[in-house]
Amino acid sequence: MIIEDLVAKAKCGDKNAYSELIVSIQSDLYKVARARLKSEADSQDVVQDTIIKAYLNLGKLRINKNFKTWIIRILINECNRFYKKSKRRDDVFEKCAIDGNAVAYMEDKVDFDSIMKVLNEKERKIVEFYVDGYSIKQISKKLSINENTVKTNLSRGRIKLKSRYSPASIFMFMLCLFIATSVVAVSIISYIKSLFELGSVGINNSGVLMAIENMEWYQKVDMNYIDLGDGYKIKMEYLLMDEMNLYMVFDFTSEKDISKFTDMTPTDLTVVNENGEVICDISNFFAEQYCKKFGYKLIDSNKNNMKVLIYMYTDKFPVSNSLDISFSKVDLTKKLSKRVTINSNVNFKVKLIDKFVSRKFTTYKSNSNIIEKAIVTETGFHAIIISDNQTLKGAKLIDEFDNLYECNTQVLTDYDFKYIINANFNNFESRTLRLIINDKEYILSK
What we know:
By secondary structure, this protein is an alpha+beta fold. It is built from twelve helices and 20 strands. The protein has three domains: 3-118 and 165-189, RNA polymerase sigma factor, region 2, helix turn helix motif (Rna Polymerase Sigma Factor, Chain: A); 219-357, Immunoglobulin-like (Sandwich); 361-445, Immunoglobulin-like. The strands form three sheets. The protein has a nine-stranded antiparallel sheet with strand order 12-14-15-18-17-16-19-20-13.
């Protein structure tokens, strides 16, 4: 079957057609990745991420016969991103090097039942739940077993699969499971984590990434593109919120080539909760708003698409069932050039999922008035510090069992010397904590 027909079928939901497409070019994808990355394992990781990303964005491919060129361009972008981050991603099964030519000699179909028979009943149930997108904690509750038992059986299952079948077979098993369930659980979580990762702008909020991994602490926004006119469209794709963080991922698309632009910004973005309280109004500096720090980050781009993360921090976001988001201008920026402004009034409402509405947190009191607030949320430890020091160095958090957690510090407001400190710690049961700032220790207690 010619490639145009396979792509057309895949766009209509034919999973076997997409599998056939990938099998036909998998060797080429691997060779491209291997030429750009140092190790075979890293190359295979990026190829797997590319396959998933292409599947999720297949509807954006306008000319079906250009599928191979299109997916290789996605692969190159993924290689570049991987190289810049210098960081490995986890996969559903352990990393294993794959001969790029091996898949070409494989049988057309994989016998899933035969593969899964290698596992005992408990291992099989756990692997199936895991691939279907359930977290370790969710599997633990569903099967009424503790989390360590889930991890142990999942590890045993991986070892059995790897020892019984060739690396290429494992790859095809992963691929076909992905096609059967739309996405591989761990891989899609890695993709979501990459959207909300802020290390490139100096904000390494690892607690947020921890919450995404362990509790799927994010919301996929179900909405259609909003037409901005002149071939431009935009929609919100993902949302993340807790007591002190609000992150929004916007998907901007164009019929024109926008690869020359370096970022996209809704310049008069306004976010209002259901009670009419202004969360953020970046066009009005003097507006009463909860937002104390605002920023944005380009997280992905190609010829016709950009993904932008807009983030804001505060001392506390009010609880709300929904958010109203509006803007009338979108700026596209070129390097060393003037901006292009798109004028279009946009207003939409996002109904927040229950975990954001009923979010929980624990408040700690301090023995010092320089600590204005200290809380533990699902996304970690957050503290608001008032200090006239220009820098807060070496902040560390120590729990009651003397476990040490490195902290990340950011300026919250310049005018009253407020800082926000984050740490990857979300134990709601801890009675006391110690926070070390500039070599001085502060006691926090419930």
